[in-house]
Amino acid sequence: MTPTVMIVDDALFMRKIMRGILEENGYQVVAEAASGIETMRRLHDHAPDIIILDIILPDANGLDLLKSIFSVSPLSKVAICSSIGQEPIIQKALDLGAKAFILKPFTPEKVVTTLASLEG
Amino acid sequence: MNMSQYRDLFVSESRSHLEAFNGLIVRFEKNNTPNIVHELFRHAHSLKGMAATMQFDRIAELAHKLEDLLSKVRDGEISPTQSLIDILLAGSDLLDSMITVIETGKDDPLPGANDLISQITGFCSDSHAVPEPEKDVAPSEPPLRQYQSRQSDSFKTVRVKTETLDRMVNITGELITTHHHLSDQLRALPGTGMNEPLALLSSQLRELRDEVFLARMLPFSVVAERLPRLVRDLSRNLEKEVTLSINGGEIELDRGILEGITEPLMHILRNAVDHGMEPPHIRMAAGKARSGLITLTLARDKDHVTIVVSDDGRGMDPALLVAKAVDKGLINAGQAAVMSPREAFMLICNPGFSTAETVSDISGRGVGMDAVKNAVRSLGGSLSIESGIGRGSSFHMKLPLTVSIIQALLVECGALTIAFSVNAVDRTLELTHNDIFEEDGQQYCTLDGNTLPLGNLHHILGQPLPASVRNHIPVIVCRIFGRAVGLIADSIMGQREIFVKPLGKPLSHLKHTTGGAIMGNGSIVFIMDVNTFTALP
Question: Is A118 a domain residue?
Fold first, then answer.
């Protein structure tokens, strides 16, 4: 079955690029969100297999959002996607339940290999 | 991957970030708050990520330098000076020029770019050494803003009248009602094969609703911008020293809610400065800081927002409030004897109840707390008050994120179908007769080890009691002024999304209702306002 994905990033531009990469590689993007509020609202309607989550959002910190995300959609796998790539941040994300970290700027290959590692 | 297809989007979105960035710098110049710095940082950060993805390295580098600079401001390593404002504005202008180069495709080396990047780097590494210009020295020319033609951009966003947005919500609400109607009709006809298209329609309607609501959302900061000035001017007039701190200004609310909450918030702030806050000499005599602090905090929880206004002023004495209410004939001695502090604080929301020793020009007598309570309630929200003598007071408002379309619990009581906003309901219970006990004519049950007072919706709504003894008694647990109360109904029909319409006269005079909604079968349900159930135990 085609894995479903939700993209969370406050920049429409980043969401469109990510959507382009994902759709070219056989993923189904079921939702996009630009803020923490929107993420939680969309999450109630879709339970995506994968969530690609930015850290700096207008109303929330992506890492702080993880707990709420898992409480609504416990089976979703989260890949953090951010240009903040310091080791402690990555470790914190993994400790909070994220499964992968995609550093911005990303290449399509990086996105695809990261998401492939989440499957199975 | 062909990135050129994203160039136009990059240009238009970068421009939006820059416009916001410029607006924030102007605000920052007047009022240096952590929120503004954080927002400035976020825009620079987004721009950096976008430019790096497009491999526009110089834009990414400049945005990165600005981001660094702002993180140092945020961490208190760089103080907000005029030089900082100038360099942020120059950085923004240069980014704008760089984006124009991308947009027009013209090769422009932008000779000042390297100088500015080094200047920002220098500012970051040695900020405190950057001197403020001497007052007697003529200020240097501000960098010339380059006004570029943005014709290609001007078609990407449109201004929409708020009435148009209101109509869109209205139509979406009607569509949801029609959908319920259709579903109800088709459910009665099995084997129509309509389940799948109906489910699809339902999900498309949800998406439409979300998009329409998103278009109406505005950050609280739109309202918040004017509040610090209000507090400053009031406190000066009253020779008090008060600071207002606002947290959560970025949280978005429906414009209808924002519009409706502005005046009540200003009332509460006026009261806090006028009545709550002590003059500096009294504060100091009480061992407090000379300057008072009012905090306004927004937080989002599920599909509602809480707004809390707290002050560290003199607070209120519940015993005094109760005595005054008895004196004014608002309550009798029996009611006064059993009144909790929380209920006592709510007495100030009675029309004409004044806590001030003298009538003041600023807040007047009665101070309009009744108007505040009514305004919050008409938005589908609730108000509660906490206070401690000498410690200050806090006003808690719980508001829905959006108006008009709400998740409601439908309940039957006698001949009526009524709805409770799910925000107002803690949980539902099903009791047997054995679970209910009575003391002094009041019914109770036990819930999680506590005693829960029960009220009967039949009595409240003037409906006849069920004729036969029931095996299972449905109960809706609500919070009425912060206290859990169980409401006995005939049956609980389940949860449904409903489109709330204001009731026209004469129905608007009905007690206990905040609005009505039309069901799929054309019947009307009334939406209950639990905070009017004051006759309850």
Answer: no
Question: ipTM higher than 0.90?
Answer: no
- Two structure tokens written together for B534: 């004051």
Residue of A nearest to B41 (CA): A56
Whether B21 contacts chain A with CB within 8 A: no
Q: How far is B236 from chain A (nearest CA, A)?
A: 33
The CATH number for A28's domain is 3.40.50.2300
In this structure, is residue A12 part of a structural domain? Answer: yes
User: Residue A73 sits in which domain range?
Assistant: 4-111
Return the axis-axis angle of helices B162-187 and B195-216, rounded to nearest 10°. 160
* pLDDT surpasses 80 at B144: no
Number of folded domains in chain A? 1
B6/A contact by beta carbon, under 8 A: yes
Would residue A15 count as lying in a domain?
yes
How far is the CA of B494 from the CAs of B129, B176, B283, B408, in angstroms?
Answer: 67, 17, 53, 8
CB contact under 8 A, A14 and B49: yes
* Residue B251 Cα, gap to closest chain A Cα (Å): 6
Kindly report, residue by residue over B70-128, the tens digit of the pLDDT: 988 988 888 888 888 888 988 988 998 899 888 888 776 677 778 888 888 888 776 44
Q: Which residues contact B507 (CB under 8 A, 6 or more apart)?
A: B513, B516
Residue A16 lies in a domain: yes
In chain A the beta strands, taken as DSSP E runs, fall at 4-8, 28-33, 50-53, 77-82, 100-103
C-alpha B273/C-alpha B296 separation (Å) is 13
